[in-house]
Amino acid sequence: MKNKYLTGQKILKIIKKLFPINRSITGDGNRKSLKIIKEIVPKIKIIEYKSGSKVFDWKIPPEWNIKDAYVTDDNDKKIIDFKDNNLHLLGYSTPINKIINKNELLKHLHTDSVDKNAIPYVTSYYKKNWGFCVTENFKKKLKGNSFKVFIDSSFKKNGSLTLGELILKGKSKKEIIISCNICHPSMVNNELSGPTLLSFLSKYISQRKTFYTYRILFVPETIGMISYLNKNLIKIKKNFVAGFHLTCIGDNGKFSMIESKYANSLSDKIAKDILKSRRNKIHKFTVCGSDERQYNYPGIDLPVVTLTRTKFGDFKEYHTSKDNLKMVSPKSLEESFLFVKDLFQRIEKTSKDYRVYSTTKCEPFLSKRGLYRSISKKNVSSYERHMFNILYYGDGLRISQISEILGEDTKIILKIAKKLEKFKIIKLI
Fold it and tell me: Does one domain contain both 383 and 300?
């Protein structure tokens, strides 16, 4: 049984390697993480966007890095230590080295209101603040009147935001986007499952000849995606076919998706197809919370769907210290890899999912082309019926859509369509 879930074991090994690293929307933690991911997919390009740069309505903040952070009691004993768990520190905390009283400390302690034994994940990216995150039970039991708070952090105005980009060229310039987020500190399902699974999927795709070109992105959530779209939107829109965002995809829950804004895109169809054969749940776009927000925003208009297992916010460990290595297993990670592998295979199949356009007004005269019998009989064969229906639905519908309407295998419908195309009765685009 040693080799069972071999791919899942490999993914888990990388997760364990990435888990201790403190990541944020900027900083060395992201660079270290991408360096590890590059061991799996060496061709990833590391991109740096300068702090202070205006990206649409936003500005990239100063780069934040942290060396150490702790709180000691009046006996000089460390009672909160960033090095024990990097969730202990409020993300983007400003530096401090000061003796304060208990009341002042309590103002800067953050807890989880639901799970009293969990350390919450809390940030203050765009407003200067400092703080520590602890369990509610720890806060209640806090004793003493004098505490030393120490945070050795730095802000670089001339720093940058770091992301990873991988372009895997296919036969066509038409592009598929697959993205994930790399900005979360030590949490596994949200968010090490996305980057690690995407790394292994990227490796798998890179070893194959593909029809589509794949644009694969490892970005800090929100500001990272906004920055990337600000720089690349024009060329992305030129060749965009479909897009998928991976998040919270490593646990043992149902496979699920968040639809694109209007739920009618090719991205939606592909995602729903792979969900059909699995326990699944489909969420409307209105529950959005990850980077599907940026893709689907007016003016961007990229109908990207989010693929997940238990959706962010729907598992009790979400954004707490309990989203740890216990959240995943070789089995669950293997299942998730097979899921995204299936995604890739379904995407490639759509390269032959032509749109059908009839070229005549009313029905064409098929008999003169030898496509229909010259002697009329009562019964119409399934082949003939499919032929006529392809013509009737030849107003831009895809082969897959026509196949679904007719309840017939896509290969059969495509074969008939290509025969009709030879006689210039339809166009396949």
Answer: no
- In our burial notation (b when 16+ CB lie closer than 10 A, e otherwise), range 12-46 reads bebbeebeebbbbbbbbbbbbbbeebbebbeebee
Candidates 194, 180, 177; CA nearest to 242 is 177
Distance (Å, whole) CA 47 – CA 151: 29
Summarize the chain as % helix, strand, coil (round to 5): 35, 25, 40
Has residue 251 been placed in a domain?
yes
- Same domain for 147 and 220: no
CA 325, CA 58: separation in Å to the nearest integer?
A: 34
Which residue, chain included where needed, has tokens 């897009």? 243
The pair of three-digit structure tokens given for residue 376, joined into one six-digit string: 């009329």
- For the stretch 1-39, pLDDT in tens is 457 899 999 999 999 999 999 999 999 999 999 999 999
Token reading at 428: 């396949």
| Gap between the Cα atoms of 384 and 417, Å rounded | 12
Look up the CATH number of the domain holding residue 224.
Answer: 3.40.630.10
- Tokens linked to 327: 């959240």
Inside any domain, residue 1: no
Residue 128 lies in a domain: yes
In which order are the strands placed within the sheet that holds 395-398? 395-398, 355-358, 426-428
Host domain of residue 420: 353-428
The structural domain count of the chain equals: 3
pTM: 0.90
Q: Residue 358 domain-assigned?
A: yes
pLDDT single digits (tens) 214-246: 999 999 999 999 999 999 999 999 999 999 999
Burial classification of residue 267, based on how many CB atoms lie within 10 Å of its CB (0-12 exposed, 13-18 middle, 19 or more buried):
buried
